[in-house]
Every structure is written in structure tokens, then in C-alpha cells.
Amino acid sequence: MRTMIRWPVFLWYLSWSAWEDLRYRRIPNRLLAQFLAAEAALRLWDCLAAGGLRPLFWSCGGLLAGAGLLFFVRLLSGGGIGAGDVKLLGIVGFHVGGKLVVRAAAMSCVLAAGACTVLLLLKKLEPEDGIPLAPFLLAGTLAAVMAG
Asked: What is the spatial distance between Cα 80 and Cα 55, in angstroms, rounded to a whole number?
């Protein structure tokens, strides 16, 4: 029952974040706060069902892995990655865990790089232009989850 609620909520907020990033080139903090609050409430439900805090610790590890990974890339890129993307990958990590969030980030980067290559070849994008990352985080996360 919890999974039947958790995944639709997760996909709703992740899709909404991707839409906001595509449309406005930013992910509002209010949206990310709601997303994290919903995920935390569902994870606490897991803790009650499991009789302990282990699911919460697992999720916090994923949050740190996801946000930490993209924060490091943000530092190296000189701010080329938006703070909303860092927070969003942290929330993805909170949902899927530390191991899967690394795979999701890698798949997202491959998809984004492929899209950029095609757009550059078609001259629809200049090398100094940026692209919204959240749609690729959505696609990469779905690909990582389906791949296992």
C-alpha cells in the first residue's frame, strides 16, 4: 500500500519540477520543500511500519549522496549547475537511496550530454548556452529505477 502511494507522489513532484525547470529555468524552493515534506512523511510511515528508524537513515544517506554529488559538480563548474538541481537530486536520493541515486545521476548526465550534442550539431544551441537539468534528472531516474 505504501509503495502505491509513494511512487505516484514521487513521480508527480519530480515531473512538476522538470516542468518548472523547462518552462522557467528554475525550480522554486517552495516546490522542493513540499516535495521533501511529502517524501519525509511517507518515509516516516515506513518507519512506523518497520518499527524503527532504519528507513529514515537509509533515505538520509541517499539525500546526502545525491545532493553532495551534484553540489561537488556545481563547485567544479563554477555555478553551471543550479542550486535547485542540487536540491532536487538530493530529494531523488532520499526516495531511491544512495546507490541508485548515483546511477540516476550518471544516466541523467549521459542523456543531457546526448541532447546537448544533438542540439549543438543542429545549431539549436550554442556552446555557452545552458539547458535545464531537471527533465534529464526525471528521465535518468526513471531509467535507473527500471534498470534496477
From this structure: 33
Half-sphere exposure of residue 35, counting CA atoms within 13 Å on the CB side? 27
pLDDT(77) > 80: yes
Residues 6+ apart with CB under 8 A from 98: 58, 61, 62, 64, 65, 66
Q: Which of helix, strand or coil describes residue 78?
A: coil
Q: 99-109 pLDDT, tens per residue? A: 999 999 999 99
pLDDT, tens digit, for every residue of 4-39?
899 999 999 999 999 999 999 999 999 999 999 999
Give the contacts of 148 (CB within 8 A, at least 6 positions apart): none
Sequence length of the chain is 148
